[in-house]
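Issue 218. Parser rejects a valid record. Input:
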Amino acid sequence: MRTRLAALLAAASLAACATSPLGRNQLILFPDEQLDQMGVTAWQQIKQETPVDRDRSINRYVNCVALALTGELPGGGADAWEVSVFEGEEANAFALPGRKIGVFEGLLDVARNQDQLAAVIGHEIAHVESQHANERVSTAFAAETGLQLAQIAAGASTPAQQQLFGLLGLGTQVGLLLPFNRRQESEADLIGLDLMAKAGFDPRASVELWKNMAAAGGGSPPEFLSTHPSGDRRIRELSARMPQAMQAYERARAQGRSPQCGSP
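Output the parser choked on:
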């Protein structure tokens, strides 16, 4: 353990060389394989504790949107990402290292068409592709060098499971998502916007989606919105990047990328 600890601390000196897709410096100490293992462990726990929606039309719809998005990623073939729809009224979605995507039924009441659903799923995929969970784990490790990542990855105890979920942005109760920091959330918005445009989804739907989120519940926002930064700033940032996203969208449509996922 001490040898590995020394190696990881030495790697921290190179952290300035790690950058996000938008060029932000990141603290990245752990290999992708280890984060993937942690994500798979959390995913298995979620699937054990949360009923999976068996409606074929809903699953076909969500998988169609997710596949169009992941198809734009390196190595993003049909079987590259696992997608599950979970029962529950929460307007939530999440993605985990290890290429796992979860969507709760309640999200479909707020994301009213395929483009709006793509905005949410694209945002969550962007967290994974930008290594935001690795940043969380790396920051926790740097702050507390006694962090037992092997135990956490194995999910050996309830405290370890709780710490694992927290680091990956999941609450201890499935259906509650914890916020990444504001910079990470803003990055995920913009990277997700670019991804949905490249896949042929209308990026303008992202702004309408967040307006729907804000209006949901008659002033009592859904869980997804309450745990993510929101408001005028989010919409301003999306709008500022919209001309670039629209160019990517128009190129995608000209090249024949026009998802037809219908509705559930």
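Fixed in the parser; the record now loads. Residues 11-16, 218-224 have pLDDT under 50 and may be disordered.
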